[in-house]
């Protein structure tokens, strides 16, 4: 079964670290929604009539849309695609400007998973990150979500924030696990060129935390989440049994997905496509039947590298049976040979027919993954 991602590229304020495609929101969303629905109509063959088991509204800030506007999008998708009756429907929520009526409105539409962007429970971090909300507002939004009847609630946190020590991070996690959430996504801060943080770093106004501190915060995350009953199923994702993100897990398992909206990516195992990264050009191109995406046919090596990149980040790791079928003896021998070295260093282990990273390996997952990459051109 396939997935649909919808990118809502509007934000009310731009956070210092964020490199996702977004623009400051304008209040008239109707031209954008019309374009989204027209795109869905144009591309409804991309998933080859596969049933859709996950829908994910991400951003940007999907909650700049009213429940009526979200309903219009969902109604369009239900008309155009075969949607599974147990479809996971997630929406990313920013804690500002949310009230119980809004959340009840979402619940009535069939949204069944809330992803709340808390980032930190410490106001000094939120200020540095240029977030629009305080810690108290995030707590209110979280409680409104429970009160509105959502039980599948996940929150996003960022660690490795300059000025946040290991003890600050511990306190953040303790507060997080004091709520009845079912899932946590915790990302190490990355400082991307072009963002406010990127510019501050260039001018020497922001210093990244050192590697030792990063490792310590990652270890704290692993220990505390395990103690709280969460399963570390992907480098940055932790879920209670039965509450892993089905949408993201499908990405990591090479399941087909269609991405709608500016900058959204799509994948169907044969090709990868990516939409224009400009909301006005996107709307005009879709409206006037002009090309609005680029695409790439996937070579065997690209598929191999993508498989390694995604699978090694998960608790299921590289499935050697799958590798033998999909990438034949050459791919299989290459992996087994490469894995030998990492196993000797205690960075990888084999569980039945799966190769997974040890906790020590997870600390340097990016380096291990890049060593596994097959060069595209010999
Ligand atoms: C694209 S954001 C959208 C979520 C929503 N707009 C919000 O701000 O809460 C998805 C998540 O990615 C994470 N993220 C984005 N940029 C990041 C960065 N540079 N470093 C670490 N985490 C980042 C944040 O935790 C954020 O909640
Ligand atoms: S983190 Fe979220 S709210 Fe902040 S700029 Fe990025 S998408 Fe917008």
Instruction: Write down the overall mean pLDDT.
Output: 95
What is the tally of helical segments?
A: 14
* Number of E-state strands: 17
Low-confidence stretches: none
Radius of gyration: 21 Å
What binds here, in terms of ligands, is:
S-adenosylmethionine, iron/sulfur cluster
What does the model show?
It is a single chain. It contains 14 helices and 17 strands. The model has no long low-confidence stretch (mean pLDDT 95). 42% of the residues lie in helices and 22% in strands. Strands 9-10-8-7-6-5-4-1-11 form a 9-stranded mixed beta sheet, sandwiched between helices. The protein is globular, with a radius of gyration of 21 Å. The protein has 378 residues and is α/β, with parallel strands linked by helices. The structure holds S-adenosylmethionine and iron/sulfur cluster. The site of S-adenosylmethionine has 17 residues, from strand 6 and strand 7.
């Amino acid at each position: 079964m396939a997935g649909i991602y919808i990118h809502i590229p509007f934000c009310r304020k731009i956070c210092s670290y964020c490199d996702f495609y977004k623009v400051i929101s304008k209040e008239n969303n109707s031209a954008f929604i019309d374009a989204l629905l027209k795109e869905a109509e144009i591309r409804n063959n991309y998933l080859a009539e596969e049933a859709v088991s996950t829908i994910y509204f991400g951003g940007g800030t999907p909650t700049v849309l009213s429940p009526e506007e979200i309903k219009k999008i969902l109604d369009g998708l239900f008309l155009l695609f075969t949607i599974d009756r147990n479809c996971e429907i997630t929406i990313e929520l920013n804690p500002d400007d949310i009230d119980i009526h809004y959340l009840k409105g979402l619940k009535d539409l069939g949204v069944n998973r809330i992803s709340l962007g808390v980032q930190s429970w410490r106001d000094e971090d939120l200020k540095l990150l240029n977030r629009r909300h305080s810690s108290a507002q995030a707590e209110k939004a979280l409680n409104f979500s429970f009160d509105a009847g959502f039980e599948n609630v996940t929150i996003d946190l960022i660690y490795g924030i300059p000025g946040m020590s290991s003890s600050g991070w511990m306190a953040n996690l303790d507060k997080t696990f004091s709520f009845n959430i079912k899932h946590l996504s915790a990302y190490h801060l990355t400082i991307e060129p072009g963002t406010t943080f990127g510019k501050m770093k260039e001018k020497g106004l922001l210093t990244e935390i050192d590697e030792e501190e990063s490792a310590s915060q990652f270890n704290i995350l692993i220990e505390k989440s395990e103690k709280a009953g969460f399963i570390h199923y992907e480098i940055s994702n932790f879920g209670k049994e039965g509450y892993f993100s089905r949408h993201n897990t499908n990405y990591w398992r090479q399941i087909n997905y269609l991405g709608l909206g500016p900058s959204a990516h799509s994948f169907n195992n044969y090709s990868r496509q990516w939409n224009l990264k400009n909301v006005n050009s996107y709307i005009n191109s879709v409206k006037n039947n002009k090309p609005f995406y680029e695409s790439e046919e996937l070579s065997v090596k690209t598929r191999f590298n993508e498989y390694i990149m995604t699978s090694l980040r998960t608790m299921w790791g590289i499935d050697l049976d799958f590798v033998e079928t999909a990438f034949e003896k050459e791919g299989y021998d290459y992996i087994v040979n490469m894995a030998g070295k990492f196993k000797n260093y205690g960075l990888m282990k084999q569980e039945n027919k799966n190769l997974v990273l040890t906790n020590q390996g997870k600390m340097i997952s990016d380096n291990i993954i890049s060593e596994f990459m097959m060069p595209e051109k010999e």
